[in-house]
Amino acid sequence: MMNRESTRPAQKSSEKAVQRCIEPKCAASYGIRERIYVCPRCNGPLEIECRLEAPEDAATLSKTWEARLASPDARDRSGVWRYRELLPFEEGVSSVTLAEGNTPVYDAPRSAQYCGLLALRLKHQGCNPTGSFKDTGMTTAVTQAVLLGAHTVACASTGNTAASLAAYAARANLQCVILVPRGQITAAKLAQSMDYGAVICEIEGNFDDCMRLMQELGDDPAIYVANSINPFRIEGQKTVAFELMQQCRWRVPDQIVVPGGNMGNSSALGKGFGELLGLGLIERLPKISIVQAEGAAPLARLFAGLDSARGVASLPDSIVPVENPQTLATAIKIGSPVSWKKALREVLKSGGQILTVSEQEIADAKAMIGRDGIGCEPASATTVAGIRKLVMAGHIGPEESVVAVLTGHVLKDPDYVSQYHRGTLSLGFVASGATTTAQPIAGAFRNAPKQVAVMKSAILECLQRKK
Ligand code: F0G
Asked: Ligand 1, from 341, 407, 410: best to mutate by most atoms within 8 Å of Cβ?
């Protein structure tokens, strides 16, 4: 798949960046305008290796980025292109942007207490233009698609990648085709893709089937794949580390926790922090931990069986997929993550953990984040649920500085929220053969609407009861 012979010479010495195979035994490099997604030599994952045009600028980078916060230039208004010195594009590139990034970091005192921490900060990537962190990667992937002269961009998706790609493709006037598992993505996400004019192919299967199909389609020269297997996606997404550090006044948090699905986000976060460390802009890495839903946790299973003391040297060659992944957090209902190797490498390098949380834990954590006045979609809430478990297990100390990355907006899945608060949420799945089993989720922090008479006294009584 997507393993076509490379037609161009490898790196030109004048180029700012190269694409490099991450397999240490191979480490082949390719030019930045090669249209490849995996290493043509060994099929390994590719990543972009960028060097500063003027290396002496490293020390002044943070000052340059700080000054851009007050600049009206469209590139500076983007929380991705603001960090363009570390992106694999030439200075004058015409970027496809929706002013992505610029997402807030919130204090979340109730969630902190719930986790057993003194403080907890939430970096809300759901505040991006299409409501998820995917926008930070699509601005660079679609910019690259335009530079390559592509006419059609494509992705497999559990909903957010699709909505984001559809929007950026519309901005660039490109055709967009998305493959989604029929009946398994939320109405809100699907509605976004319809609005942005994408060709929507609903596939009878799950996300992993869509992803396999996408890898076959990637062989077609007319189609440019924008899933996170594409290293240009990761380049945009890595800037979350730069923006977060700027917001933290360059004081590195002890722990950063992210949800894990196809594993692009965790890979990108680790890459971003690694680059800051390499440039001397930070003095240590935060521990990066990944949280998966119990029913869709291939990487957590792999991690549990690893000798993590051996670190990056013990990276396995393959992962055992989860055949029939199950979770109500549909964004991360993925059994065979494409970027598992990069993500695992980042976790091992940083000394973090990979763990699972139950459906009940996700639902309650989501409601608790809500009590802080901050909405998010279910997949994002795995972070707070996971942090609570990591504190209980002693992997995170109560006084450590912890940042959870929220990945999607609460309005991405309003049905889930409503069902939780009304007490009707349940996970239905085909257990064996054709028997469907329902696993009810109790709304421990339920807050259902009440039917109240048209009378002032009835409303006051209602308030009284709530106290
Ligand atoms: N959170 C949300 C809201 C997501 O949409 C996703 C992935 C993840 C977390 C996991 O991130 O895949 O980088 O590990 N959504 C993809 C999609 C798969 O198609 O929208 P990851």
From this structure: 407
In the chain, what is the greatest distance between 2 CA atoms, to the nearest angstrom? 79
Q: How many CA atoms lie within 13 A of 268 on its CB side?
A: 30
In the chain, which stretches have pLDDT less than 70?
A: 1-14, 55-56, 308-311, 313-314, 429-435, 467
Report the separation in Å between the CA atom of 264 and the middle of ligand 1, taken as the mean of its atom positions: 8
Pocket of ligand 1 (CB under 6 A): 132, 157-161, 228, 259-266, 331-332, 377, 379-380, 407-408
- Could you tell me the distance, in angstroms and rounded to a whole number, from the CA of residue 159 to the centre of ligand 1? 8
Q: Residue holding tokens 């082949």? A: 28
Q: Which are the contacts of 360, defined by CB distance < 8 A and separation ≥ 6?
A: 441, 442, 444
Task: Please report where in the chains the tokens 């909903």 appear, as a residue.
Answer: 159
For residue 52, CA distances in Å to 85, 251, 276, 334 come to 6, 23, 12, 36
Handedness of CA 342, 345, 351, 357 (dihedral sign): positive
Angle at 371 (CA atoms; ends 116, 426), nearest 5 degrees: 90
pLDDT at 2: 46
Q: Please tell me whether the overall predicted TM-score, pTM, comes out greater than 0.90 for this model.
A: yes
Q: Hey, which of 158, 228, 376, 405 would you mutate to test ligand 1's pocket, going by the most ligand atoms within 8 Å of its Cβ?
A: 158
Q: Kindly state the helix (H) or strand (E) to which residue 145 belongs, with its residue range.
A: helix 134-147
